[in-house]
Amino acid sequence: MKKFILNIIKYSLVALLLVNVISFASLYLLSKSEFYKPSYLINHFNKHTKFDYIVLGSSRGLTTINTNQIDEALGTKGVNLSIDDTGLPTHSLMLTHFFENDFKTKKVILTLDSAFFKDKKMDVSDNDYRFLPFVTNDYVRSYFTEYENGVFKKYSFSGFFPFIGVSYYNLELFFPSLVTIFSPQRHNRFDDNGNYRYPDKKLNSIKKLGIENTNISNLKLLELKRMCTSNDAELIIYIAPIYNTQFNINKSLGIEVINHTSLLKTTDNFYDVIHVNKKGREIATAALMKYIN
User: Whole domain around residue 250: which residue ranges?
Assistant: First the structure.
């Protein structure tokens, strides 16, 4: 019986070691690829690259601002680092990731969703697993420690046992890592400048106009502003168009706000209520250009 138990322990340890080695290899492959935005930034651009502007945000930043259109018109150099299904903490992490890897920019355009206008309890986002290839970096580990709630901290524990995160997000991490073996420059739904757009379809909606008088008072924004200032960059808050919605911003912590909530009036410009289509993206990007020029 004792020998049986010892064999179980031995084989369990071997199995644990094996899955950790495989998981480490998966994260390593992703870190050397361009599949997700955090690794794309590092591997697509030369270190110390200086941008005229970068775009941070969720899917609304990803699909509203077309850096290709801006750069072709103004002769600038920009990149869209927005990640879908993320919130303000993730945008802050991406900005830290940007500066920690010795990139520079003149302007940081933060596409802020209304859910983060004011202070609230914030958590990790659905797509934060895309930073797991860099979980051993202090700033990534600190981020997960600060924002991950609950007893089972799959992100934080992955810094010691990578199989936890890789097995939990196997479809998003393990299988894409196999793809990167043959195609390390493949991107996950974004082009060479980080942009993505939804199919060009027209919104069908009867939503009535909603008008809200509000402040932008989330103190996390001051942390981002200080980070930008210490890196000689200007932080600008951008509020992307929403169908039949108008935000009247009264205060914004001393940060410049570009409020394009009500810029687009018709359903012809929207894919859904909170995302523009191809036509809407062209109009919204053109309207943003004067702030970047």
Answer: 2-292
Amino acid at 279: K
Task: Write down the pLDDT at residue 248.
Answer: 97
Biggest CA-to-CA distance, the chain: 77
Give per-residue pLDDT as tens, 162-201: 999 999 999 999 999 999 999 999 999 999 999 999 988 8
Distances (CA, A) of 91 to 87, 113, 137, 150, 213: 6, 11, 17, 22, 25
Rounded to 5 degrees, what angle do the CA atoms 32, 88, 264 make? Answer: 105
Number of structural domains in the chain: 1
pLDDT, average across residues 227-247: 98
User: Token match 């958590």: residue?
Assistant: 123
Q: Where are the beta strands (DSSP E) in the chain?
A: 50-56, 78-80, 104-111, 210-214, 234-239, 245-249, 256-259, 270-272, 275-276
Percent of the chain with pLDDT over 70: 96
Q: Is the overall model pTM greater than 0.90, yes or no?
A: yes
Contact 217, 257 (CB under 8 A): no
Give, in order, the Cα–Cα distances in Å from 138 to each of 31, 94, 107, 143, 164: 16, 14, 25, 9, 19
